[in-house]
């Protein structure tokens, strides 16, 4: 007689090590939105970085693409407990945007068409860790998923990957964005389960 | 003049939150429109509940529910009018 049942011996029950604590794997891609979906034509789309002097660094859609579009494979983790693994994306590295931007400030407020904001430390956007994403799953980003362009910061909870992103404003302090003012964590590292204040 | 601590709010807040707030009307701090809270546009497929002004889309209120804790923001509303029964 065995004291070990099959139910406790199968490896299939082991948790996927790519899933942060408290997360569940999904195959679909849930749409979360705190407001109406903006419809932005790429002919009118513009991206702006504002530094501490008040100077604006601007890119049109074509100017953004001319910086170089990269293939990215990323796991994404939503604070509402779902994760999606090895998702194919295409986008422009935020490093490229900052090549000619000088700033002494350490923090950034991302602003979106529609008024959404989220705060991110600048170091979380640099060194190949963040992109302005324009495609996902081999298709241009749907407006429901933040198209034409969204911020992609996959190592932080996905509310930081602002949909319909339109610009970044440099900040001396880590002022809270929309969700961060209303209960969510200032940084949002899924591996530390930084969900709330 | 000296101030009192937050405990003196208890009576007033218990009064407010024991009533249903949705028939209350309030002014949107974005556009100034006065409407009942029940007329707001509420988005629930989000990390929290977001109520927006039906006139201008301004965020009126948010509720973030963390189970054992809850955050309520009413920063988009001023002059909330409650009617006594």
Q: How would you describe what is shown here?
A:
The complex is a heterodimer of chains A (197) and B (85). In chain A, a hairpin with a 4-residue loop joins strand 6 and strand 7 (117-121). Chain A is 7% helix and 31% strand. The termini of chain A are far apart. Chain A has helices at residues 61-66, 94-97, 178-181; strands at 24-25, 46-50, 56-60, 70-77, 82-93, 107-112, 117-121, 131-136, 139-140, 150-152, 165-171. In chain A, the strands form two sheets. In chain A, strands 1, 4, 5, 8, 9 and 10 form a six-stranded mixed beta sheet that branches. In chain A, strands 3-2-11-6-7 form a five-stranded mixed beta sheet. Chain A contains three helices and eleven strands. Chain B has one helix at 9-17, and strands spanning 25-28, 34-36, 41-43, 49-52, 59-65, 70-73, 77-81. In chain B, a hairpin with a 5-residue loop joins strand 1 and strand 2 (34-36). Chain B has one domain (21-81). Chain A: Residues 1-26 are annotated as: Disordered. Chain A: Residues 35-179 form the Oxidoreductase molybdopterin-binding domain. Chain A: This is Molybdopterin-dependent oxidoreductase.
Beta-strand residue percentage of chain A: 25-35%
What profile does the largest beta sheet of chain A have? 6 strands, mixed
What is the averaged pLDDT score of chain A? 94
Question: What CATH architecture label of chain A applies?
Answer: Alpha-Beta Complex
Number of helices of chain B: 1
What string gives the helices and strands of chain A in order?
Answer: EEEHEEHEEEEEEH
Write the layout of secondary structure elements.
The complex is a heterodimer of chains A (197) and B (85).
Chain A: E1 24-25, E2 46-50, E3 56-60, H1 61-66, E4 70-77, E5 82-93, H2 94-97, E6 107-112, E7 117-121, E8 131-136, E9 139-140, E10 150-152, E11 165-171, H3 178-181
Parallel strand pairs in A: 1-5, 2-11
Antiparallel strand pairs in A: 2-3, 4-5, 5-8, 6-7, 6-11, 8-9, 8-10
Chain B: H1 9-17, E1 25-28, E2 34-36, E3 41-43, E4 49-52, E5 59-65, E6 70-73, E7 77-81
Antiparallel strand pairs in B: 1-2, 1-7, 3-4, 4-5, 5-6
